[in-house]
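From the shared-data thread, chain only:
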Amino acid sequence: MEIDTDSSTNENSEKTNGRLTWFHWIQLIATILIPIIIAIYTVVDNKSSESIAEANRRKDIEIAEVNRRTDLEIAELNRRSHFEIAEANRLNEIRLGEQSREKDRALSIDQQEENILVQYQTFLSKLILDHGNYLEKSSEAKTVAQFMTLTALEQVNIKRKRILLRSLHHANLINFLKTEKLFDTSVVNLDQADLSHIQFGLALNQTGQLPMYRYISWNYLYLPRTILTYASFRYTILDHTTFTQSIMDFVDMSFAAHTNHQSRTNFVNVSLIEAKLSNVRFRLTNFSLTNLALSQMDNFECIECHFSHSILTRVNLNYSRFSHTFHLSKTRLLFNSANFSYSHMYFALFRSINFTQSDWSHVQASHIGIYNSIFTNVNMYKSLLSNSIVQDSTFEFMDFYQTDFSYAKFFNVTFINSNMYLVNMHFVICERCFFINVNFIDTIWTYVSLTNSKFRDCSIDIDELLENSIDISESKLINGTKEYNLGELNPYHPILYNIRVKTGDRISPETYMNVYLTIFGQMNQTKETELKSDEHQLNRFQRGHIDNFTGQFNNPGQVCFS
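Structure, as tokens:
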């Protein structure tokens, strides 16, 4: 029993020793691995720490670099700012110094100009005291005065130039006078003097109609061949003034006027381009050979003024008035060879005007009035004269091309030797009109009224005229009118003649006696007939004038003489 027990105990002891051995191995391996793992972890952790530290170090370096650059930039900006401030202060000091010097120079120049003006006025006073009314007769004094005046004008500003000119004007030294040789002149000749920008009149802020006593008088001012560009003559009185051959472009002459009914202002051969002549009232003014292109002449009134060979292209003439005082006489204002092309003249008035060889092409002239005027060889290409009134006037040798006469009224108007091509006669009224040798080509006759009118030797579409006319009572289509020719003229058939009589220009050629006319032709002669006119009898047959008469005579054949 005991032996057996010991045997089993030994077996159990061996089995137990076997199990412990594997455990011990596992324990040993674990004991070995734990330090290794700890070592590996330690190494990895150290590496991670080193990486983090390196990253932080690099970041610190970058931050330090950025801070350093920022500090450098701030320092550079501060340096530049200080430099700019210093430079600005330096430039400001320079500018202030320059301004101070400029102010000192201006004060010095102003004082110098004032001294020049005072010295000149002193000289002028002494000259007048020494010579008095005999100054104009002293050539030496005139020479000295002109030299001193021109020298002073060159050395003073615009304001003092005006004062100087005012002094000269009050002293009658630049005023119009006549010498013993009857030459228009002045004591002091300002030929080619630069007087531009000078304000002769009132300032621009003066608007509306002022009383005449507020106007500035420059009567008898004599300034030929001077430079007056951009000068101002607003609200000035210009009786008997002369600007011949002067340059007056862009001048402002608004509200200028004449007070003397015999005032004569001379603008002959003057350049008045883009001038302001609104609300001007002139009499007996000569604008011949004057360039008024692009000027403002609205509400412009000129009585007995001449515009021969003047340029009025693209001018505003709205509400303007041009007239002759004695409109019943044969004398007419001369607008011959005047160029009105592309101008506007709405509601303008023309009375007793001679427009021979003038240019009215592309003119906008609606609602105008034309009385006792003559149009000879005038260009009216594409002109507008609608709603206008034409009375007691003559159109001779005219070429009307696309001229618009719509709604116009013609009273006692004569058309002679003219062409009407594509002329608009829509709603036109013609009373006592006379058409002689007029060619109507594609004329618009719609709703036209022709009363007491006559056509002779005209080319006209009778059917169209009769179809479109609303009134042709008492009108006559005299034999010889094309489209209505009845064949050979009856030798005794009455013919209406337009007779022009020119009175000579010699001494005392005029007459107030009755004048009679006899026409001698190849077939016959007319009876002696007195030349009568509907106009004032006393105005007939005056020196240098042409009188127009109309008379009906039996046909004498081809006229030989009268």
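The radius of gyration is 52 Å.
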